[in-house]
From TrEMBL:
It comes from the Bacteria. The keyword Lipid metabolism does not apply. Pfam families: T2SSF. It is found in: Cell membrane. Keywords: Cell membrane, Membrane, Transmembrane, Transmembrane helix. InterPro entries: T2SS_GspF_dom. It is a multi-pass membrane protein. GO terms for cellular component: plasma membrane. Residues 167-291 form the Type II secretion system protein GspF domain. The chain crosses the membrane at residues 6-28, 97-117, 123-141, 273-294. This is Type II secretion system protein GspF domain-containing protein. The keyword Cell membrane applies.
Length: 297
């Protein structure tokens, strides 16, 4: 086998490893049935299934690992983040195992490709590298889940501001608290409004107060803004004007908080981009000044 063939083979193996990593990190497309099912009460505990009713392979792997591996391996599961995103612990555990397996395979593939090129590598390098990379990818789903939950909570708070405004208008128009909440939830078509409407309509069959259902939802999903709204509706009583003023004040506070967060991120982004821009300006200045100084010397 010639050197060119070895190089082509090693390049193909390395590319295959990179493709496997990317495929493992890219989220799978969500079936419409699963997306709609997440709005139902069973979406927080049921395993995702495909059109044929078969449980997803990731869920099966996570379910098996959850039953056979010790609990200390998993640590404390992020229950609130999983519930907010409509994922199960089995699916989360399955993604962790798949990521770790990919981490174990990448370094040996690179090592074999390097050895085929004639470069000797000690045995300890691929072994320790595989373990280290597997541990790194083991915690990658945790970071992804945390980031997705943070973005979902920000989107929920942003939509909840509009929801609070609609509840205030409905309450000022004379609607009762349950009517104001349900009518306001029906005005939006985002996943936030759909989830609020599902929770509120469920109270018609369970007999629970709508503000109690919202408070439970806020505590279960770690949504403090929703809990505050439930407290306002609980303490508002029958005085529509007083509730209206409280809701409008709460909506204004939520808008100001969102605006301050966006301004802080914009300032942070501006500070981060200032460093490379300053570096480019310095390089350009050196490029222009150094030739002139050399000519003078």
């Amino acid at each position: 086998m010639t050197g060119l063939q070895l190089a082509m083979l090693s390049g193909a193996m390395l590319s295959a490893g990179v493709v496997l990593i990317v495929v493992g990190m890219v989220p799978a497309p969500v079936h419409l049935k699963d997306a709609i099912g997440r709005l139902q009460p069973t979406s927080l505990t049921a395993d995702p299934v495909d059109a044929a009713g078969k449980v997803d392979a990731e869920v099966r792997l996570g379910r098996w690992a959850e039953q056979h591996l010790p609990a200390v391996v998993w640590g404390a599961p992020p229950e609130k983040d999983l519930a907010l995103l409509g994922r199960t612990r089995a699916a989360f555990y399955g993604s962790k195992i798949i990521s770790a397996v990919l981490g174990l395979l990448v370094v040996p593939v690179i090592s074999v490709a390097t050895m085929l090129l004639g470069l000797p590598i000690p045995v300890a390098v691929p072994v320790l590298g595989s373990l280290g990379f597997a541990i790194l990818l083991w915690f990658l789903p945790n970071n992804e889940l945390r980031d997705q939950a943070r973005k979902a909570r920000e989107e929920f708070s942003y939509a909840l501001g509009a929801f609070v405004e609609m509840v205030a208008l409905e309450r000022l128009a004379g609607a009762t608290v349950p009517q104001a909440l349900i009518r306001a939830a029906d005005t939006g078509d985002s996943w936030v409004f759909h989830r609020l409407a599902t929770t509120l309509r469920r109270t018609n069959y369970t007999g629970q107060n709508p503000w109690g259902a919202l408070a439970d939802m806020g505590n279960h999903l770690h949504l403090p803004d929703l809990t505050d709204l439930a407290d306002i509706m609980r303490l508002g009583g029958s005085d529509g004007t007083r509730v209206y003023d409280s809701l409008r004040a709460r909506a204004a506070a939520m808008r100001n908080a969102t605006l301050n967060t966006q301004i802080s991120r914009a300032n942070a982004a501006g500070e981060r981009i200032a460093v490379p821009v300053a570096g480019l300006v310095l390089v350009l200045a050196i490029t222009l000044v150094v030739p002139a100084v050399l000519r003078m010397i």
